[in-house]
Specification:
Elements: H1 2-8, E1 13-16, H2 21-29, E2 42-44, E3 47-50, H3 53-58, H4 60-80, H5 82-90, H6 99-104, H7 108-114, H8 125-147, H9 153-163, H10 178-189, H11 199-208, H12 212-220
Parallel strand pairs: 1-3
Antiparallel strand pairs: 2-3
Helix pairs in contact: 4-5, 4-8, 8-9, 8-10, 8-11, 9-10
Amino acid sequence: MFSEIKKVYPNIEIKFKNESKLMRFLGVLLFFHKDFMTKYSTIWGNAIYFPSREWLREDPIRAYSIIIHELTHFFDRDKVGKYIFNFAYFCPQIFGLLYLPLHLFHFDIASYIVLLFLLPWPSPRAYYEKRAYLVQLYALKKMHDKFVFTLDLEERASKYRRLFRSLDYYFMFPFSIQLAFDLALQKIKKGDVPFESPYFALFDQIINSIDEKELLEIANTE
């Protein structure tokens, strides 16, 4: 699997949040996201951070699907540029940082107005997360066909949809996205891609090259 990924991202790394000072610091900043350190993966630079080695060992199939989810973010980040991509992830709350300079220069009314950006407004991040979760559903279906394990795609899609309205994602999209997921699921169940993208050819190569031992070796390497 990683031999295929490294053809595109030769510097990609798998790391673990419980072993990272940076991730522990982010976990403190994201105090409202109670599962950040224990249930979610995160990309930072060229690294994909899993919660822990133990978490990875528990369910390699889950880990593989998340790697493909995160690769979707890598591809989208490369397409639009890392600055635009990162801005989208922190928008519009990032504008709340204007409070301090405005306040220091005594623009008091404006400084209090920009604090409104810290509220959970809809975020362009939702566009990229929707793409990544649809790709993850596609990957799970492909892996199910290859390895034969219990999989309820409808239940999994429902779980992913709820995240868009959850505190974990800071209520990034409070509107319904069920239609988009339903249409994508129809395609996935028929063996089609959920949306048009040149990335799926690589995803198929990655899935076809999966070797569970490879992932477990990463988890067991100190």
